[in-house]
Amino acid sequence: MTTLPAATRPAPRIRSRGPRRRIGIGRAASYLGAWSYALMLLLPLYYLLVSSFKDNSDIFASPLALPDSLSLRKFTTSLHDARLDLAIANSVIVTVLSLAVILLLAVPAAYALARATGKVAAVIERAFSLGFLIPTFAALVPTFLLAAQLGLFHTRTFLVLFLPATSLPLAVVLLTQFMRTVPNEVEEAARMDGAGNWTVLVRIYLPMVVPGIVTVLILSFLAFWNEYLYSLVIIGPDEAQRTIQVAVPTLRSSLSTDFGVLSAGTVVTLIPVYVVYAVLQRRMEGALMGGAVKV
Amino acid sequence: MKRWLTVGVAGAVATALATACTGCGGPLDPGTDDPHTLVVHSRFAPGTYGADTYASVVAQFERENPDVHIKNLYNGDDIFNSFETARLADKEADVLLINLYDKAYSWTGLGATPPVNRYLEEWGLKDRVESRALKAWTDDKGRVRAFPWTGFTWPVLVNSKLLHRAGIEKPPRTMPELRAALKALRAANIPAMTIGGNDWSGQKFLMQVAQGYMEPAVAKRVFSKGGYCAEPQARKGLRLFAQLRDAGLFVKGAQGLNADQMNADYLEERAAMMPAISSTIAAVPAPLARHTKIAGFPVPSDGTYDKPTVYNGATSTGIWLTPNGTEKPDLTEKFVKFLYRKDVVQKFIDKSGYVMTMRGQRPSKGRPLVSESSRVTHGDTVSEVVMPDDYVPPAVSTPLNRATSLAYTRGTDVQAMCKALDTAYRS
To answer: Does residue B6 belong to any structural domain of this protein?
Structure first.
């Protein structure tokens, strides 16, 4: 390594000492609030994670202390005892197929509503919005009866058909707003080139509303993956079919529970959620910000 | 375009999985429609109390009956709801292994499950069952709800090492002895009794203490219909509970604890006493079991009972037949007879410390503390009090547990306690 002559050496950088930034009381309070809020969100996650490596006595005696060892025994026990491997496979089947169904239904519906100008379309759009007013619990009994009548009780198939219905109002309303932002001129240009409805939807609209679709996918994924009540009632306890949200509570018993194993099982259920969120986070945040302006 | 490809591939994989797992006999195939499969719904999920023994006897049954497959369905506390919804859709399991509790009391009367009187006779199983168990599983119209199978004992565990450290020689049997023990334990800085004041364990103990002044007929009436405030015996019993609570009977914060925290307290030797059901007694490790004594809870000298009290029951797990199960009589008969077989029952007693309600079984070799609890519970040194679960209406159970928490809060007076209990019956 050669040494540069002093003349050619770059002059040492002098850090200019500008005016000291003063943090006002308001800003300090907002920092404090933000950090406190972040801690409030992180604390349960931390508790869950450290509990996954502890026995009951340690969890009750010192809940927030770090574990003595990082043995994965509790994770393997939870996987074995609740057959979380099968449960994850079932959750993937139900969630992915439900997402496919919701896209198949919501995208064409939103396209039609976005382009339509008549009063009927406005009524239909409002009808979709009314879907928000139906409490999930209120639909349980009719849904159960429907499943029993169709002979689809204790099957994943019914849930794959039913779950998209629960997210359809949000998906249609959200995608309609996104599609309304696509300029008419683009569509007109495509039509002049001979594009039909299907081509316009697939080639013009879909690429331009990807952030909206990602938002719908993430929100629906969270709803479908975490769904418990209908999965419990409709699919039932069979470990060959039950989803992970139904499988994990079997690790709890009223007589005695190994909370370390239960925590480990819960962590396992959370991992896919964090993975999906981490992968699609930026798209979704961007879409939500954009959507906030557009809607 | 790449992302659409990803979505498409994911969808295709899921579709392929879903298609492949239906009717292929793989792990994701329910396979419940097979006529040679007996579907058994239970709480024996792997990792729970007795699950290993259950799994081993099921394997033994399948070895002995290679033409029969047992398909197990597991639930936790939601097993009652899960069964009921399945029953409404005619998709219930063939056999149900569950305790007689809460909603299950109404099943036979509503026709959700058939009575088993006929099968007990025809399959020659009646003589195997202890008469008290048969009585406990029979409703007021003489219908036996299910095949009685396991029972429970519910005495008080006493850590004699901690008592000795406080200068107490033996478990207290009378109220003066108990009050003296509380004083000595407090002086030695040893919490006297741990309890799950926020759940079923606390609720049972509250009712046990209150029964110190309640005659059985009064207890049954009050448990069935409420009216704690209006019943002088119930008020007197609750006053006794409040006095003991304020004298320091329970660990600090008992009103917020649950059964798991209670167990952890006792197993870690942080408290000298704990009311414990036999499944918990089976979990006491050998070193602690060596200095654990089985006792009843002391009673007042002017009370209803003259000996320390315990709970004792025969309704822990029964073998319920379902309408679907009656359509597979050969399979259900084989399975029920197998579960009643002497060597199979003994396995549950020896390996898991189960209290079985079958005649002619030996005490547990592997769990001597459970055997001791059976001996004490059925001996003449204790009195058996009325089990609230046999009388409390199903809809009241959960609100009653919540009302219990108030009773464990220091300073709560009798009026507030009985009012909370009565409110539970109106919820």
So the answer is: no
Overall fold of domain A84-242: MetI-like fold (1.10.3720)
Mutation site for A-interface testing, chosen from B5, B28, B52, B87 by largest number of A Cβ within 10 Å: B28
Q: Does the CB of B24 have a partner CB in chain A at under 8 Å?
A: no
- Chain centroid to Cα B424, Å, comes to 21
Looking at the fold, whether B387 and B334 belong to one and the same domain comes out as no
- B362 inside domain: no
The CATH number linked to B217 is 3.40.190.10
Please compute Rg for chain A using Cα positions. 26
Percentage with pLDDT > 70 across chain B:
93
Cα–Cα distances in angstroms (integers) from residue A139 to residues A153, A159, B158, in the given order: 15, 13, 51
Query: Which chain A residues have a beta carbon less than 8 Å from that of B14?
Result: 92-93, 96-97, 100
Does residue B56 lie in a domain region?
yes
Minimum mean pLDDT range among A209-218, B133-142, B182-191: A209-218
- How far is it, in rounded angstroms, from Cα B133 to Cα B147? 9
User: CB distance A93–B46 less than 8 Å?
Assistant: no
pLDDT at B13 over 70: no
- Chain B residues touching residue A76 (CB < 8 angstroms): none
Count of structural domains, chain B: 2
Distance CA B185, CA B179 (A): 10
User: Is B290 a member of any domain?
Assistant: yes
Tell which of B356, B379, B412 closes a domain.
B356
CB contact under 8 A, B45 and A253: yes
- For the record, the structure tokens of B123 come out as 């399959």
List, for residues B262-308, the tens digit of each pLDDT value: 998 999 899 999 999 998 999 899 999 999 999 999 999 999 999 99
Q: Which of B30, B86, B259 sits opposite A255 (nearest CB)?
A: B259
B139 and B283 inside one domain = no
Same domain, B123 and B163: no
Please check whether residues B147 and B220 belong to one and the same domain: no
**pTM score, two decimals?**
0.81
Min CA distance, B54 vs chain A (Å)? Answer: 14
B323: which 2 tokens?
A: 């309408």
Give the model's pLDDT for residue B367. 87
Question: Biggest alpha carbon distance in chain A?
Answer: 90
Nearest to B153 by CA among B369, B340, B319: B369
Domain that holds residue B74: 34-151+314-356
Residue in B29, B74, B200 closest to A250 by CB? B74
